[in-house]
Amino acid sequence: MATNGSPEIVGVTEAFYQAVFDTDRNRAFAVVQQALDQGISAEELVFSAVIPSMDRMIKAVSEDFNASLAQHFMTAQIASQVTDLLLSKFSQKPAVLGRVVIGTAFGDLHTLGKRIVIGCLKSLMVEVTDLGVNVSPEKFVDEAQARGAGVIAISAMMVHTARGEQGALAVRELLAQRGVEDRIKLVVGGAPFRFDPELYKVVRADAWADDGISAGRVITRFLQGEVL
Amino acid sequence: MITGMERLLAAVNGKKSDRVPVFCNLFDQGALELGVSLEEYYQRGDLVAEAQIKMRARYGYDNVWSLFYVGKEAELMGCKEILFAKDGPPNVKDFVVKEFGDIEKLVIPDDITAHPAFEEQAKCLKILKQELGGRYPICAYLTGSMTLPVLLMGMEKWMELLFWGPPELKNLLLEKTSDFFRKEIAAFRSLGADILLYSNPYGSMDVIPENFFHQESMVWMKRDLEPGGMAGVVYYCGMARLNGAIPSVIKELGIGTYYLSPFDDLAQGLELVGPQRLSCGVINDIPLIDWSKEEIRSEVKRMMEIGRRSPRFLFGTGVMPLYIPQENILTMLEAAYEYGRF
């Protein structure tokens, strides 16, 4: 059996990272299957290969890797699908890092960014509830409270859905009214926030992420109790 | 008095007019101008034309638009439902392609000008041509074949099909959307549009990997554009950066005008486009909502100082959200007229 840091798992991790980096889904699955066949457990693969690879990818994307949107999408999907496969092989239900509810802002039907974030978070062992598109502020907060989520993530691709009265501003208002601002953080993302990096303050979010992959880092830091 | 068309033609020919041409994209603001809802406004071509004419006259910029909203193209291909907002552009609500099997059933109209969804656009264009033709350039917005599937099935499903789906299905859809594009550009040309904005985020390496751009995007862009030629065509990637694509587009397509992204390095963009072709520097107009007068003037000044180094330069805007206060639009335009003066 390979152990964390053993040559076997290091080799698997590197091969998996390269496959994800190259957005080669078949190769990523082949690497994982080969490792399973060699007797490396699903648990080890998730914690020693998938999560470190996603951490490395997040770091690369946020620092200097000039990846395209398609690469972000494919990376997140590959990591998420591999994680789903491995989770089904876990001997017992794994502990999650935290819980997040995510959706697109009221009036917004764009799903791609949300899906990238979901894929990224799932591969980091975050339990994600997808509320879908065109989500009302009440639904965001109701679901977050019902599920014990530490973060509400809102994706908005248009200026009026990012800034509108039924978007993040209304969610913030509800969080304040219900007295749960210290327990539930509000993270936003989408094109308007890239065009205006100060916009997240205007809509009273706690943080924003430049892209779906980087959102993984922002959200997991909140879930781990960091003050950003 | 000099017209917008004269300013544009001077820039096309590398000559100086009184100032740098200014292309301002006001769309949803037309409803405010006429005091009607966005939903009512976009139902009628005469209202869109009237607002375009009034806004151009009031603000003094150099172009008008025959564009309603981007989802119009989806309607021409069968979309039945558009989600209207009170404070922003409409969205496609009903995707024509709900599952991959719908691609085979997708029908591109033989004559898009006979389609009911085109009727009001044609009416708008006819009025603009009658009132401003030859004096102010009339712009049309045409989505490229590789981007049109986003309007038909959403970006998420399209990404899956594009990169991981059956190649024959992907190619079938692209053939259909490319056929649509060819018909649409021919229709707008025949109705007298002067400037044909070829909008294709999938022609930007911000959206797709570089090798994919060369191996796939370029093939479909050629198919879209070559039959009708490049006259009046402007390369635009929907606010995504295009500097990285410019050398290949010049070499392989020969497009003569480039509508840069606010995220592109403007000086580098001008250099890549070169002095023989036209560049449009585009202001990042989303922060215009909150910027102070000084911030707006400073950004316009910066852009004009770079842009005026090129003999063929335009100043342009991007999406111009409805949230931008009118006084900020005026501040931006006055600064453009002032700092763009020759």
From TrEMBL, chain A:
SUPFAM superfamilies, sorted: Cobalamin (vitamin B12)-binding domain
Signal peptide: none
Domain named B12-binding: residues: 97-228
Keyword Metal-binding in record: yes
GO cellular component: cytosol
Pfam families referenced in this protein's UniProt entry, alphabetically: B12-binding (PF02310)
Assigned keywords, A-Z: Cobalt, Metal-binding
InterPro entries recorded: Cobalamin-bd, Cobalamin-bd_sf, Met_Synthase/Corrinoid
Record-level Gene Ontology MF annotations: cobalamin binding; metal ion binding; methionine synthase activity
Superkingdom: Bacteria
Biological process (GO), any one: tetrahydrofolate metabolic process
UniProt xrefs under PANTHER family: METHIONINE SYNTHASE
Name of this protein: Cobalamin-binding protein
Lineage summary: Bacteria, Pseudomonadati, Pseudomonadota, Candidatus Lambdaproteobacteria
From TrEMBL, chain B:
UniProt record, GO biological process: porphyrin-containing compound biosynthetic process
Uroporphyrinogen decarboxylase (URO-D) domain span: 4-339
UniProt-listed CDD domains: URO-D_like
InterPro entries in alphabetical order: Methanogen_methyltrans, UROD/MetE-like_sf, Uroporphyrinogen_deCOase
SUPFAM superfamilies listed in its UniProt record: UROD/MetE-like
MF (Gene Ontology): uroporphyrinogen decarboxylase activity
Name listed for the protein in its UniProt record: Uroporphyrinogen decarboxylase
Organism: Candidatus Lambdaproteobacteria bacterium RIFOXYD2_FULL_56_26
Organism ancestry: Bacteria, Pseudomonadati, Pseudomonadota, Candidatus Lambdaproteobacteria
